[in-house]
Amino acid sequence: MEESQWKAIKPTEVKNAVELFDKDWLVLAAGKEGDFNAMTISWGQMGELWNKRIITVYVRDSRYTKEFMDKYDHFTVSAFPRTYRKAMSYIGSHSGRDGDKIAVAGVHPESTAKDNITFKEASLCIECKTIYKKRIDINDMAEEVRKVYADGDIHTVYVGEIVNVMERQTHEY
């Protein structure tokens, strides 16, 4: 990674997390160069838990990315300029099991200084260390929310401690 392209920022300098997850979408990646997968996410939170700055993400059992989330103890959450919305949509609607969806989407993976995966086109990269994971128990949720899991494809919750936040100087997210 070219260090001059990225600037380290504090987690508190990241724009509104609700906008990032809900409006902008994000790409979750786990693994390392040559052995990773990524998916688009719009569910998540960013804040403080257990006296740590954290990001919480949710990955369904059926997603290929889940294998990488369970195999590796770090992950990244990357934001892209809105001009990459079509690429992000492709990454979110195709499986890495079926081919190189990253190449087809037209984005280029790169390793961070901590050997995690982000993308040359990303405008923001948040690196996290997994500090908690738990498969959702639908018996513990309100009845009106259970319908999300009518198909039985349950999410696992991953809480990641934010270990590094970088923004690219040439992009807005």
What this model shows, in words?
There is one protein chain. The protein is of the alpha+beta class and 173 residues long. It has five helices and ten strands. A hairpin with a 2-residue loop joins strand 4 and strand 5 (52-60). The radius of gyration is 15 Å and the shape is globular. The protein starts with 5 loop residues before the first strand and ends in a 5-residue tail after the last strand.
Count of helical segments? 5
- Sequence stretches where pLDDT stays below 50 over 5 or more residues: none
Quantity of strands, as a count: 10
Give the fraction of residues assigned to helices.
Answer: 10-25%
Please compute the radius of gyration using only Cα atoms: 15 Å
Strand content: 35-45%
